[in-house]
Structures are given as structure tokens and as C-alpha cells.
Amino acid sequence: MISALSIRIACGCFEHIIFKKESPAMQDAFKRLQILMGDTLQIADHMKVAPEYEQMYQQIVNGLKEQNEKIETSAHHIDVFSISKHLSAIKNMVQQLEGNFIEDYKKSTGNQIGQYEQMSLEEQMEQTENYHHKMDYLSAAKMRENLIRMNEVLQALSGKRESGK
Amino acid sequence: MAYVITSPCIGEKAAECVDVCPVDCIAEGPDQFYIDPDICIDCGACEAVCPVEAIFHEEEVPAGEEKYIQKAIEFYSNDY
């Protein structure tokens, strides 16, 4: 049985679910979470975003680093609800960026993304602006996927707790 | 979804894929190169440059080569 404490905080309708970090199942889950956070940060590190997106990009990167640090520095207990809430907010920002990137990609290819992607890699890379937009869009899409996975890891933890597994 | 490196890489290890990956998600293992499925952004650049046609999208891995999907997951979960 996974040991977890559920503490209702008298600050509204939110239930803060605090997990003990020591149990092996928790350790595995948090390790997976940290791997996904590190991988997502690696993708972000390779992006060269346009100045108009810089602020949001920095918020995403800083948000991920903060959540990662929370897990790393919590000696005994971790507030899964709080982390999940922050990750959802980060995912929404990534989704917004992804939307901007796909629009930029469409514009730069003259609404011919399919045609552009039919070209050889060399030809695609020669069209530097298009290639840059493509990489930004794919990077944001992958970051969003990873953030969904992170919340799935957290949800699985809550599920285990509720079913007493 | 991600790209996967399959058996033709074993013994070949040409490494062209490493240079072209825009997110640095390909690492050298003892027998072959591996793509990290949590970082791969599905751009397909690695597939285009592989001289031995060892790289496939996860959904298009040829029959008999499916074990390389799991092999890559295990490679990265063991922190090589």
C-alpha cells in the first residue's frame, strides 16, 4: 500500500494531496517526472524564439525549473496537487506558443506546409525561415505532449492512493 | 511519438543522425545509437541522413524490428 497523507487546507475548495516521498512507488514516479521535466527543458533550450514570444518562453522555462526544484528539494513530502496545477498552467502557455508557431509556419510557407514538407531535407533547410518555424512548432508540440504525460504520472499517483494499491 | 533506430545501425554507427538532430536527442550506446523518445520532436531529419536506412518513425518500424522501440526506452530509463 502506498502511504500518502491527504490534508484538506481551509483555503477554499482545493484539496492539497501531500505524498510521502520515501515509498519506492513514489520515488519511481517522481524520478519519471523529473526525467520528463529535464527532457522538456532540453527541448526548450534548443529553441530560438522570436522576441515577441520571449516573455512567455521564459515563464515556461522558469516554471518548469521551479517545479523540478520543488521535487528535488522536498526532503519528505510533496504536494502533488500544487505541482499538477502549475504544470497545467505551463501546458496552457506552451499550447498558446504552439498556436502562434503553427500560424507563423503557415504564413512563412504561404499556407503550403504540406508542399514544403514534401521537399528533401536539404531543400527544407535551405529555406531557413520555414525550417526555423517548423522546428519551433514541433518543439512546442513535443513539450505539450510531455506536460500531459507529467500530469498523467501525477494522476496515476492519486489513483493509486485512492484505490489503496 | 518518436523515431527509432533499428538493427542496420548495429556495427555501422555512422553517426550522421547525431549531427543533424536539432534537439540533441541521439546518444551512442555500446552497440548502436539511440533516439530518446521523450525528446525527439518527430522532425525526421535523422531518417533522411541515415546511410543504412536504419531509422523509422515509431509507427512505421518494419516487421521484426519492433523490439528496437522498447530497446530505446530501456536504454534511456537506465540512464545509460
Task: Write down the overall geometry of chain B.
Answer: globular
Order of SSEs of chain B, N→C?
A: EHEEHEH
Uncertain spans of chain A, ≥5 residues at pLDDT below 50?
A: 1-14
- List SSEs of chain A in N-to-C order: EEHHEHHHH
**Overall pLDDT level of chain A:** 86
Summarize model confidence as the mean pLDDT of chain B.
95
What does this structure look like?
The complex is a heterodimer of chains A (165) and B (80). Chain A has 165 residues and is mainly alpha-helical. Chain A is built from six helices and three strands. Chain A has a three-stranded antiparallel sheet. In chain A, strand 1 and strand 2 (15-20) form a beta hairpin. Chain B is built from three helices and four strands. In chain B, the strands form two sheets. Chain B has a two-stranded antiparallel ribbon with strand order 1-4. Chain B is globular. Chain A binds chain B through residues 35-36, 39, 42-43, 46, 120-121, 134-135, 138-139, 141-142, 146, 149, and chain B through 20, 22-25, 36, 38-45, 48-49.
In brief, what are we looking at here?
The complex is a heterodimer of chains A (165) and B (80). Helix content of chain A is 72%, strand content 8%.
Primary descriptors:
heterodimer, A: 165 residues, mainly alpha, 3-stranded antiparallel beta sheet, 6 helices, 8% strand, disordered N terminus, B: 80 residues, alpha+beta, two-stranded antiparallel sheet, 4 strands, 15% strand, globular
What secondary-structure arrangement, pairings included, does this model have?
The complex is a heterodimer of chains A (165) and B (80).
Chain A: E1 4-8, E2 15-20, H1 24-45, H2 54-73, E3 77-79, H3 80-108, H4 113-117, H5 121-126, H6 128-163
Antiparallel strand pairs in A: 1-2, 2-3
Chain B: E1 3-5, H1 16-20, E2 26-28, E3 33-35, H2 45-49, E4 55-57, H3 67-77
Antiparallel strand pairs in B: 1-4, 2-3
